[in-house]
Amino acid sequence: MKNLIRIIVAVISFLGLAHSLQFPRNADQTRWALKSCLREARPPRSLGAKWRELTLPKNERTFCFVQCLWTYLGIFDEKTRRFNTSAIETQFISRGSLSPKSLHTLKGQVKGKTCKEVYKFSIDFLKKYKSEFRHVFYLTDQTSLTWYSQNRGKVKGRDEKASSFCQKESNECERLHCRFYYYRLVDEDYKIIFFRKILIYGISNRQFNQCREEADKKNGCNVAKAFKECLEKIDNEKVQNAMEAWDYVSQRYA
């Protein structure tokens, strides 16, 4: 079983699927995905409570929450409009569950560019495997808290700021990478997370993405360093303000 997981993970990494994110995902990463999608959608409390349990009523707000969750979990690619079914299989197997028999229903390309199309394409799968999906992706309080307890000190605490946790790193470059990782700007492989929806007031989308592309050419912690330096050249004050805001968010939502 362990060898099978290693093979699947290696194939995913080699093909560059799922935005280069590693699978299986851990509870810290999936918690960020869920909480970030909730924060971005800002649903009424009653609807948000349903979403947390993967009860997904048919309405416009839910459609885009579903697309956001798939995307931030690293499974749905908004550019290719395809699901990384190998990643889902890896997540299920790594958590002791069998590969979903209905996984084939997520293969192929989602037609159309709307959130509704993603919802329609995937809702039957989510309904059928709701309990297992929440378990294998640590989307229940019990599975999440257990994982954090088992990994205390190794990962940022649930209510800890990234800047505080990352002080343990040996040098400033690695500390910056650590912070940018928890701000979800870079991944565990030192690569830019391009699908992350984030803006800095006063810096245009074009400028922000140009800095992403420039930084992604670097290696190791220099990716985060180059990204920050590129943005600072545009407007240093706004970047510092943004980092303070991201640090606050890392404590509450990531």
Automatic annotation (TrEMBL):
SUPFAM superfamilies, alphabetized: Insect pheromone/odorant-binding proteins
Entry superkingdom: Eukaryota
Keywords annotated in UniProt: Secreted, Signal, Toxin
Entry annotated with the keyword Signal: yes
MF (Gene Ontology): odorant binding; toxin activity
InterPro entries: PBP_GOBP_sf
Cellular compartments annotated: Secreted
Gene Ontology terms: cellular component: extracellular region
Signal peptide residue numbers: 1-20
Descriptive protein name: 28 kDa salivary D7-related protein SP25
